[in-house]
Structures are given as structure tokens and as C-alpha cells.
């Protein structure tokens, strides 16, 4: 399972094992035929073996089992600038870091020590050194061109939704840019879309569009109990690298969260370590949507041996990111008061510790961590997504980025396991859930996008 352990400080996750579970049953559509394939996310993406410390610190870190905070404190001795040389943003960042430093340090040590005691984060790996997969992603550019396409009639919600695979196994009819697309089968499928092959998890729905073309998602009629978003925050690094187009903070207010959220919906936002972004989410964005802040959590990134990936006190990059959690509070009325009083309280300052993906902007799935706070039957939505999750609806202009087959190892299964079209297209009919697909999949819950 992806949650290796859970205690009062937080969770230790194994992201790669969770992804593999999603694709434990996978079927390839090719040339009008269906066949089983074994599908695994490439292991080298989650093999961060060494911290990004100085050379001398890395050598010391390779020497054994010193605890994580001692290694961090010894890691980097770069000369710090005088306080007077810091700009206001850097002063604010330093103050925020000092405020949460002990929470990060002590909580991570406890979680990493516990993980090591049960055989995890011990630095062992069976993965040969291989280059990271890379696929030139042109989805954002395609979304830009797709703005010329007409949108479906907003008065007909059922017209906003389409099945990914037709009865004849064809996907050429699919309009990915103007309709919500569903894989209604209880198996992952490998399909060709726009001339490229993608692996689509079971019981999932997605809309490939940019910020100005979210109408099909809104008009589909769904209300969600959990909304997770990873906005493309504006910063100097993004501007220099041009990895992706950023969105000014003020534009985030235009996201139609109140139209997508059910009463008491849990809203979770990934925030960079810039205090200005954190203040904006807490003081402007959430109040604008009617979302009440209930907690701040921290994703702590460690190596396979449990060290921080960056020095904890580095002035350049921190080994953690912030998540702001809030509850959507619609205008009070008698119909929602009972649901608000029965909500599960969200604890503050919890840690999520995991080995990060070496692929830029691939965040760990929060499905298992958030399940106790929203329930197993919750309808879940991810905004600015770059991958898909079973039982979730996802939106973004790169929503299929990490579904490309270049990020997976696909091997044909035993020929005796070839499947018929009827089995391959078995459809989920139950309510959506965030419970991941197990190695022996339970009845699947499809993310119905039409109420």
C-alpha cells in the first residue's frame, strides 16, 4: 500500500507502489483487438538516492545510519548573506521557516525512524541506473489551438460527457478539448490519442483544456467533496526555465470552485514556499471562494535513505512544500447545517514524508491520506492536474502528461490471458470513491460526471 505508516506526526508514503496498484489490471486497445499488458511506472523516477548537498556532505551522508537531522545540520556551510542584504520576501521566508522548523525536523525524524524500523527508507534499491524518461509535452499548445473549437451546448449536461472508448474499441471520435472524457471500464487501458499512446487508469474522468475552457466541467453538473489543486505559481525559476506557463495569483480567483464544490467540500492547495503565495491563499483566495482555512500540512521530500533532499536551512530551496486545507462554506441554510456539524476535524501541522518523483511537478497522490476526512464515497476533483487517478475527475492543460507510455514499462501478459471486448469494456456503475484499485480489484466506482 502507499501509506507505509501513519502516526500522530503524519504519514510516510510510497508513491510508486500506489501508481502500480492503479494499473494492476491493464488492457491495450490496438488494431481492433484487446490484450492484457503488465503496466508499471518506471522505478527510476522515484529513486532519489542522494541529497542535493555539497560534495563533502554527500560523502559523509553515504557513510551510514546517522539520523536525518544530524546530516542536515552538517550538510551545507555556505556563507550566508547578512540579514541587512535580504529583501522583504527573503526576510518573510526566513521567519516562516524558523516558525515551522522544529515541526519539520522533529516530525520527519520520528517518521523516518519508524519507517526504517519496518524496513523502509534504508537506502536499498534494486533498480539499475537508467536515464529518466522524457516526453516532449505539447498538450498545452494543443489546448491553445483548440480554443477555436466550439463548446457543447451548456443547457445539455449529458452532452458535456463522452466515453473514451467506443463500442468498436475506437478512440478517434473523442473530442478531448470540449467534453469531459470518461474511462468507464474497471480496467486501465492503453489507447492512442492524438497520435500518441497513453495509459488511462480505471474509472476516471478528465478534461483537457486551459483556464478559459472549463465550462464543460462546470456544465457536467457534478459537485465534488474534495478538490485538490497545484496551481502554476509565478516565480523566477519558472520564468527562466519556461517549463510551463504560470498563472498570476489574482487569476486564480476566477476558478469556479463554488460551482464545483459541494457543501463542506475539503479544498487542498499546494503552495510554494514564498510567503506571499501562502498569504494570498489564506487571506484572499480562500475567503473569495467562501473557503475556511482549517489546517496547514507539509510535504517533506527525502531520499531513499531518509535524508532531506535539500538542507533544511538552505536559503535557496527547502526540502518541504506547504499544503493549505480548507472547508467550503456556502451561504448558510438549513439544508447544509447538519453536514457541517458532522464533518471530520482536520489536524493541523501534519507531515507527508515521501521520496519525491525526479520528474518536474509530479506531486504524490493524496487519495489515501485524505480519505478519512472526506469519506470513501467522496467525489474527488484535481485542478491543474498532470496525471489521472482512479475514481477522480481531473482537469488541466497537461492533464495527460504523466500518462504517456514513455513513463511506463509495458510488457505483454501471458497470451492465454487475452481478453474479449466484453470483458475489456466492463463499466463501473457505482458511486465514485477515492479508494485505489487493489491487486485484486474490488468493484470499481466510476467518477460519474453527470448527477
From TrEMBL:
Q: Which GO terms describe its biological process?
A: methylation
Cross-referenced Pfam families: MT-A70
Q: Report the superkingdom from the record.
A: Eukaryota
- Plastid recorded as keyword: no
Q: Does the keyword Zinc apply?
A: no
Which InterPro entries does this chain map to?
Answer: DNA_methylase_N6_adenine_CS, MT-A70-like, SAM-dependent_MTases_sf
Which family is it part of? Answer: Belongs to the MT-A70-like family.
**Protein name (database record):** Methyltransferase-like protein 4
Task: Print the organism lineage.
Answer: Eukaryota, Metazoa, Chordata, Craniata, Vertebrata
Amino acid at each position: 500500500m502507499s501509506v507505509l505508516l501513519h502516526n500522530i506526526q503524519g504519514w510516510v508514503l510510497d508513491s510508486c507502489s500506489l501508481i502500480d496498484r492503479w494499473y494492476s489490471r491493464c488492457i491495450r486497445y490496438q488494431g481492433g483487438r484487446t490484450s492484457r499488458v503488465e503496466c508499471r511506472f518506471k522505478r527510476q523516477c522515484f529513486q532519489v538516492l542522494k541529497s542535493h548537498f555539497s560534495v563533502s556532505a554527500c560523502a559523509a551522508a553515504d557513510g551510514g545510519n546517522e539520523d536525518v537531522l544530524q546530516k542536515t545540520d552538517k550538510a551545507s556551510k555556505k556563507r550566508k548573506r547578512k540579514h541587512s542584504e535580504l529583501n522583504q520576501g527573503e526576510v518573510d521566508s526566513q521567519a516562516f521557516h524558523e516558525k515551522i522548523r522544529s515541526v519539520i525536523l522533529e516530525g520527519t525524524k520520528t517518521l523516518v525512524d519508524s519507517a526504517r524500523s519496518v524496513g523502509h527508507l534504508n537506502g536499498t534499491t534494486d533498480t539499475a541506473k537508467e536515464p529518466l524518461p522524457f516526453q516532449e509535452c505539447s498538450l498545452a499548445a494543443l489546448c491553445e489551438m483548440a480554443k477555436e473549437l466550439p463548446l457543447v451546448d451548456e443547457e445539455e449536461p449529458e452532452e458535456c460527457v463522452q466515453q473514451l472508448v467506443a463500442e468498436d474499441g475506437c478512440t478517434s471520435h473523442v473530442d478531448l478539448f470540449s467534453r469531459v472524457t470518461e474511462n468507464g471500464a474497471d480496467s486501465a487501458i492503453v489507447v492512442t490519442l492524438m497520435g500518441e499512446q497513453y495509459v488511462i487508469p480505471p474509472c476516471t474522468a478528465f478534461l483537457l483544456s486551459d483556464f478559459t475552457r472549463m465550462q464543460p466541467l462546470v456544465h457536467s453538473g457534478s459537485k465534488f467533496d474534495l478538490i485538490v489543486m497545484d496551481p502554476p505559481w509565478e516565480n523566477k525559476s519558472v520564468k527562466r526555465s519556461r517549463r510551463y506557463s504560470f498563472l498570476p495569483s489574482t487569476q486564480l480567483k476566477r476558478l469556479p470552485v463554488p460551482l464545483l464544490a459541494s457543501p463542506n467540500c475539503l479544498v487542498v492547495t499546494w503552495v510554494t514556499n514564498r510567503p506571499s503565495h501562502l498569504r494570498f491563499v489564506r487571506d484572499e483566495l480562500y475567503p473569495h471562494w467562501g473557503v475556511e482555512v482549517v489546517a496547514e500540512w507539509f510535504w517533506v521530500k527525502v531520499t531513499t535513505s531518509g535524508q532531506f533532499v535539500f538542507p533544511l536551512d538552505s536559503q535557496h530551496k527547502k526540502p518541504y512544500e506547504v499544503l493549505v486545507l480548507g472547508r467550503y462554506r456556502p451561504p448558510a441554510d438549513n439544508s447544509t447545517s447538519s453536514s457541517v456539524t458532522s464533518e471530520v476535524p482536520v489536524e493541523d501541522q501534519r507531515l507527508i514524508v515521501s521520496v519525491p518523483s525526479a520528474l518536474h511537478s509530479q506531486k504524490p497522490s493524496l487519495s489515501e491520506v485524505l480519505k478519512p476526512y472526506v469519506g470513501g464515497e467522496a467525489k474527488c476533483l484535481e485542478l491543474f492536474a498532470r496525471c489521472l487517478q482512479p475514481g477522480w475527475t481531473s482537469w488541466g492543460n497537461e492533464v495527460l502528461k504523466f500518462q504517456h507510455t514513455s513513463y511506463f514499462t509495458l510488457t505483454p501478459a501471458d497470451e492465454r490471458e487475452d481478453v474479449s471486448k466484453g470483458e475489456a469494456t466492463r463499466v463501473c456503475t457505482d458511486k465514485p470513491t477515492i479508494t485505489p484499485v487493489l491487486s485484486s480489484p474490488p468493484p470499481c466506482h466510476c467518477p460519474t460526471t453527470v448527477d
